[in-house]
Amino acid sequence: MSTTLHWGIIGPGRIAHKFADALAYCDHNQLVAVASRSQQNADAFASRWQLAHAYDDEAALLANPQVQAVYIATPHNYHYPAAMRALKAGKHVLIEKPACVNAAQFARLCELAEQHDCMLMEAVWSRFLPYVAQAKQWLADKRIGEVQSIQSSIGIAFEHGPEHRINNKALAGGAMLDLGVYALSLSQFMLGQSHTAIQALGKLSADGVDESVMATVQYSGGQLAQFATSIVSQQQNALHVYGSEGTITLEPRFWSGSQVSLQRGDDIQTLTLPWAHNGFEYQIEDMARCILVGKRQSDVVPHRDTLAVLTQMDEVRRQIGLYYGDEFEKV
Questions:
Q1: 237-266 pLDDT, tens digit each
Q2: Which residues form the GFO/IDH/MocA-like oxidoreductase domain (predicted)?
Q3: CA nearest 226: which of 212, 239, 208, 210?
Q4: CA dist list (Å): 250 to 5, 13, 79, 157
Q5: Could you say which of 3.40.50.720, 3.10.20.340, 3.40.50.2020, 3.40.50.2000 is the CATH number of the domain covering 5-126?
């Protein structure tokens, strides 16, 4: 393939603009096309980022031979069908988190990626950030001894109305898929183990989405990860990794920050590690490198981790009674 990877975007919303900004920063990556359900929205996005191609139909984008990779930035319930069509068209796929509504859908995408020799990755940008990499290095160096537990909270009191996607069950809204995925994915990343048990409680809104969830996950090594997530309460938004000899803390906004602390007794070391650009550049560069050398999975966000986190979220949703309906849950 060419040393420049040519991208298309499906779903030109707010997060797609952040992705386009990061892509413009990255060498050997170029955004060439966008698709939206609205030609007006596609044209506006294309004008902002000086793109040659703007479509009101994703099929037209997928038929463009110049497009090699696709970033899917639609609401959650559209991730699976859009990714399925992109893989069948032979495009490499980066899907905004959560990759799918459930684990069975992502397992099917993995099969399609293998069949069509395509790269497939969930866009968990937090895993690539410098301060998270520093925390992982401290863990590898046993700076806090043996990890015993992880505790995190991710809650934002959104003021959006009932029509907004985060409050809309028809768009797979709610706290778990939008926010809780960060707590579970980073806990999975820190521990690198499979889970063995989950206990969860949650509160559903009148419209049927999860407003607040608290859960504990036990992993194969015996460690526990406890998290709280909410779209109606403002929380501490920190993640603490507790070890036999100390604590590592990511805060504030542990999923999108730059500060990491290591505490051993009374000694506290705090590092601030800023992003090179807006934070999305690391996942873009990782995916481009993988494709260039023929890899079809990222070492940072491998398929097994995405499947594990989606399986955990499936169980949490089962326990709190949240099902999005056959239309959105089907494979």
A1: 999 999 999 999 998 899 999 999 999 999
A2: 133-248
A3: 239
A4: 33, 28, 29, 20
A5: 3.40.50.720
